[in-house]
Amino acid sequence: MDFKLTEEQQMLQETAERLVRDVYDFESRSKFSESEAGFSTAFWQQMGELGLTAIPFAEELGGFGGSGIETMLIMEQLGRGICLEPYMESVILAGGLIAQLGSDAQKEALMGDIASGQLQAAVALDELNSHYDLANVTTTAKQQGSDWTLTGRKGVVIGGQTAGKILVSARTGGDTRDEQGISLFLIDPTAAGVSRRVYATVDGRKACELFLDNAKGELLGEAGKAFDAIRYQSGRAIAALCAEAVGAMRSSCDLTLEYLKTRKQFGVPIGKFQVLQHRMVDMISELERATSMATLAACLADDEDSAERSAKLAAAKFVVNRAATSVAEQSIQLHGGIAMTWEYSGAHYAKRLVMISHQFGDDDYHLEAYSAQLTGA
Amino acid sequence: MDIHYSPEQLAFRDEVREFLKQELPADIAQKVKLVKELSKQDHERWQKILSKRGWYAPGWPVEHGGTTWGPIEKHIFDEESAAYGAPRLVPFGVNMVAPVIIKFGNEEQKATYLPRILDGTDWWCQGYSEPGAGSDLASLKTRAVRDGDHYIVNGQKTWTTLGQHANWIFCLVRTDPEAQQQRGISFLLIDMATPGITVRPIITLDGDHEVNEIFFDDVKVPVENLVGEENKGWTCAKYLLTHERTGLAGIGASKAALSNLKRIASKQQKNGKPLIQDAMFRSQIAEIEMSLMAAEMSTLRIVAAASEGGVPGAESSILKVQGTEIRQTITHLMRKALGPYALPFLPEEMELDYDGELLVGDYAASPASQYFNMRKLSIFGGSNEIQKNIVSKMILEL
Fold it and tell me: For the Acyl-CoA oxidase/dehydrogenase middle domain, which residue ranges apply (chain A) (predicted)?
């Protein structure tokens, strides 16, 4: 057992940290958020140039063969700046799915561009009534000759507004909530039969609703057998989100602590009041808890698929969801009115922290998943 | 001991229900139920209807246009109004400055301001908090310097709710900078049209414009606009704060929000069933419903004590804490009920006249925004930490 980072990992951490610090001051973030893309395409390009988008991929796919730890280090820094770029969605998730399921030709065609950041991809797994259950798929795909066409609606596709390719889960067999019969397709968002309703998200990003009406799709992997890969890769996404949450929590704690030391009421800095001191201690205690579980998730993310891996990732997301929401709420309360304003960065950290629990399962979802595997004991 | 209303009280409740059924405009009730923003005109329309019936200012003495209602009747009226989707009254005129004018104002002030509140001529806002004076309100710095027949006011107020609609503001200002904190403060009524006043919107984290900053730059205020004695304004402020706190538990509003939550949970799906049938989610709704039940009983006990002539004391602080936490939990559950669809930020769908396609349904655009907006409840009206300080000092004598 060893919790130390290697020299290379420390360098990676410093690279990501410096990049975020240089580009992502709060005013710039607001501009990126309000731009049409919803994030900084220049920053995205820089991430590509620095090799950050290539980190998790095997060398033969144009990557650096990084593990969950490297991903954690990057995501944590993105969280510190509440960065808006769809790194998790494109690199971890879309890249992971294509690397796992794609044919040699598909990998050849796509992986190099994903690894370099040339191609920003998105993944459409949620649906109107799926409520985090990735096996709850009503979108259908039909085969005619060698062509597949997709019909249905996918929801809250983060990064879908700018994506060059979108990976879509659709049903080619089985019943609505069966794991069997789910397939994964690559679609071109500008193709016939595809329409998007783009909207902002509460945490300042952009996403879209994806409407498919006999839209052409390219099958990724074997028909009807994509669910295992979706579950496996969503586990990697969970680990990435946990790390992002830790970064955002750390920044939120820093801001709050600074405020406690500088804001004066009743003639003293409010940090002199014991009730607020204890609240601040609760915040960093939650941060510690979340850091531990994000680290656990990072260490397991790239392990072989197993029930134990799934259970521990569920535990990590459960703990991090609760911790992130708690830190968000405490930070607003400790700041008072100022944290209720759009102008204050702390409010945007709080929004991202709460919204992380709405991606890949909230606390109820993961509590249920974790409980379910206790039945055998 | 009997928790049931008396026959007279039941008859009164029926009268209130009948009035609400007949008179509450359906479009306004619909907006309240869907948590859409109410326009100034909506508020004014409802206010006029209440005024016509003589029920706009039930807490005022009859000679000024109030009623003879006791605390229980007032409670019944508030409960029924919330249940039918009547808008919450904007309190700054009718329930905040008016009680102060009635208690501390002179006859001329009563004759000038009260009728204008009653008939809707004036929209009041509150000038209390300042950037440096939040929980520590008595540290406020806005200065009023006497100059002949006028005060010259300079300073800044903040968190002024709906100040963008107001034509009058009541302010706490410092008239004696030498005196100890609470002593040198006065209570001034200021016409918002006076030169030197600037209103700047504050956009809250949910993208809403509800609160404002107000700047005073050499604003000339006639001395007759002083309520009570100079430097004794803190007495008015304290009187008003206890008035404010009793209404802050928001039981009626929480009940309405709870039924909204159930509606959302019956429309949202999980595992192929309505979310409200999900054991885990349902138990969380049950838990908050039971807490609300307890808070409602506590309110009734306080109301009953008040009707016997008791004065609500620090109990109202306990209720403020409980009531605001309940409301926050309800909005937390609303947001959770939406699953991934809590992410879309759809302010356009919350607008009054939105007629485009709804992303999910008429219930889904606002829960996440409401959740963030409701964080204010434990901050304003004396933060919950301040309320607990009051309880530990006044009840526990610690």
Answer: 123-214
